Amino acid sequence: MRQPFVAGNWKMNGSRETATELLEDVVQGLVSSHCEAAVCPPYVYLADGLRIAKGSELVLGAQNVSEEESGAFTGEVSASMLQDFDCRYVIVGHSERRGLFGESDETVARKFMAAARQGLRPILCVGETLEEREQDVTEQVIRRQLDAVLNAAGVHAFVEAVVAYEPVWAIGTGQTASPEQAQAVHAMIRARVAEADDTIADRLRIIYGGSVKAGNAAELFARPDIDGGLIGGASLDADSFLSICESANSASTQ
Ligand SMILES: O=C(CO)COP(=O)(O)O
């Protein structure tokens, strides 16, 4: 049985004041449940996250990590620095990083490995653009993104990892993938990992991201291969985020 996982990706939003308030509200509202809940605030608020989440159910993650370990890399933050702030997770390969900051499949694979080397759990994002879906190449695109990491890191690196399927056309658009569309891709991702190792594939948590809201989370999480969500906009509101966590918890106990 896979433990459901819901992670909030705050992206570049908020201020120290709103971040602190949101962290406090999430920590207070999180009831002990089967669902693992994480938030990924901007780097500069991780220290507040560490202080506020200490001793609570809430887990911390980061939104990005350097592929390098240390040195003259102005503006970068290493995996060991994230460890210093008790981050358990780090997002790698988000489509905004791939699309806006030119991260290639190879860069993403190196970041995945840098995180794993330090014992951080990578949340590897994969997903197709609208154009790619319309050209009917979704499967090839996701296979390519996944294979870049599988080939570089090896399937055993997926024991601690999470894969997030985030169709680019569903991110921040209000246009959620239907539960059927998402389930089909999740099953395909699991089947691809199973080609390398059945047991690892069976235990791998594959979460969905792209306009997940309190109102549509339950039907997505009810699908057999959807093990939770990576939440953007709705994670900036404590009640919405907590309600999504509760949906993941209920789905897993049904
Ligand atoms: O990109 C996302 C999470 O990483 C999804 O963002 P939205 O939930 O705002 O669509």
Automatic annotation (TrEMBL):
<comment type="subunit">
    <text>Homodimer.</text>
</comment>
<keyword id="KW-0963">Cytoplasm</keyword>
<dbReference type="InterPro" id="IPR013785">
    <property type="entry name" value="Aldolase_TIM"/>
</dbReference>
<keyword id="KW-0312">Gluconeogenesis</keyword>
<keyword id="KW-0324">Glycolysis</keyword>
<comment type="pathway">
    <text>Carbohydrate biosynthesis; gluconeogenesis.</text>
</comment>
<dbReference type="InterPro" id="IPR022896">
    <property type="entry name" value="TrioseP_Isoase_bac/euk"/>
</dbReference>
<feature type="binding site">
    <location>
        <position position="172"/>
    </location>
    <ligand>
        <name>substrate</name>
    </ligand>
</feature>
<dbReference type="GO" id="GO:0004807">
    <property type="term" value="F:triose-phosphate isomerase activity"/>
</dbReference>
<feature type="binding site">
    <location>
        <begin position="232"/>
        <end position="233"/>
    </location>
    <ligand>
        <name>substrate</name>
    </ligand>
</feature>
<dbReference type="InterPro" id="IPR000652">
    <property type="entry name" value="Triosephosphate_isomerase"/>
</dbReference>
<feature type="active site" description="Proton acceptor">
    <location>
        <position position="166"/>
    </location>
</feature>
<comment type="pathway">
    <text>Carbohydrate metabolism; erythritol degradation.</text>
</comment>
<feature type="binding site">
    <location>
        <position position="211"/>
    </location>
    <ligand>
        <name>substrate</name>
    </ligand>
</feature>
<keyword id="KW-0413">Isomerase</keyword>
<dbReference type="InterPro" id="IPR020861">
    <property type="entry name" value="Triosephosphate_isomerase_AS"/>
</dbReference>
<protein>
    <recommendedName>
        <fullName>Triosephosphate isomerase</fullName>
        <ecNumber>5.3.1.1</ecNumber>
    </recommendedName>
</protein>
<feature type="active site" description="Electrophile">
    <location>
        <position position="94"/>
    </location>
</feature>
<comment type="similarity">
    <text>Belongs to the triosephosphate isomerase family.</text>
</comment>
<feature type="binding site">
    <location>
        <begin position="9"/>
        <end position="11"/>
    </location>
    <ligand>
        <name>substrate</name>
    </ligand>
</feature>
<comment type="function">
    <text>Involved in the gluconeogenesis. Catalyzes stereospecifically the conversion of dihydroxyacetone phosphate (DHAP) to D-glyceraldehyde-3-phosphate (G3P).</text>
</comment>
<dbReference type="Pfam" id="PF00121">
    <property type="entry name" value="TIM"/>
</dbReference>
<dbReference type="InterPro" id="IPR035990">
    <property type="entry name" value="TIM_sf"/>
</dbReference>
